[in-house]
Specification:
The chain is of the alpha/beta class and 222 residues long. The chain contains nine helices and six strands; from the N terminus they run ββββαααβαβααααα. The chain has a single domain, classed as Ribonuclease H-like superfamily/Ribonuclease H (Nucleotidyltransferase, domain 5). Strands 1, 2, 3, 4, 5 and 6 form a six-stranded mixed beta sheet that branches.
Length: 222
């Protein structure tokens, strides 16, 4: 587990996005694409991105949303063939996603199916950028990925593809953590307490939150 007094600026993160055949891993839906982007010391690293053979049909409405066709995943490795690489990318990092429960359920299920089980501690620590946006962008009326990154001035290319969404989420994470630290929330335990606090009481726990600049240029390392 992550120590409560661990400074946010020193935590390693793995920002994850998956594209899938549907919304219910417990009902047999599977991953068609996964991207994992490392973030550490405020810097966004190079993404790990793989197309995956879901070993089941991709519904037409999913193809219409993501652009991932049956032909694109034909001949790609099934998840079990990349499970060790995925587990290595997650090892020792906080698992982050925009609506983290969705991506976690799919990744957890795929790793378990491949015989890897859940990532070992401290990888079970999770962080949701939707919750971060709700806490540190309180005046933003909608917290979809499109709205959050547009508000922060972050480019989003390849929407509804794992690589594009994960990279945009990683840059949003960097900016949202900077806003947390501006508000005096600087440690993992303090962040968890802050996120669990009702919105009506948050202003009593942190300094007044500034509006982010209209354009924000995050750093991408090769």
């Amino acid at each position: 587990m992550v120590s409560a007094d661990r400074p946010l600026r020193h935590l390693p993160f793995a920002v994850v996005d998956v594209e899938t055949t549907g919304t219910a891993p417990e009902g047999g839906d599977r991953v068609t694409e996964i991207a994992i982007v490392p973030v550490e010391d405020g810097r966004v690293g190079a993404p790990f991105t793989r197309l995956v053979d879901p070993e089941r049909p991709i519904p037409p409405f999913i193809t219409a949303l993501t652009g991932i066709t049956p032909a694109m995943v034909r001949g790609q490795p099934p998840f079990r063939a990349i499970a060790a690489d995925v587990a290595a990318q997650l090892a020792g990092r906080v698992f982050v996603a925009h609506n983290v429960s969705f991506d976690w359920r799919f990744v957890h299920g795929e790793l378990a199916r491949a015989g890897h089980g859940p990532p070992p501690p401290p990888d079970t620590a999770r962080l949701c950028t939707v919750r971060l946006a709700r806490a540190f962008l309180p005046r933003l009326p909608r917290r979809s990925l499109d709205h959050v990154v547009a508000h922060l001035g972050i480019a989003l290319t390849g929407r509804h593809r794992a690589g594009g969404d994960a990279e945009a989420t990683a840059h949003a994470l960097v900016r949202l953590l900077a806003l947390a630290q501006d508000a005096g929330v600087e440690q993992w335990g303090a962040l968890q307490r802050y996120l669990a606090t009702p919105a009506s009481r948050r202003r009593a726990l942190a300094r007044v939150l500034p509006d982010p600049p209209s354009s924000f240029a995050p750093t991408l390392t090769p």
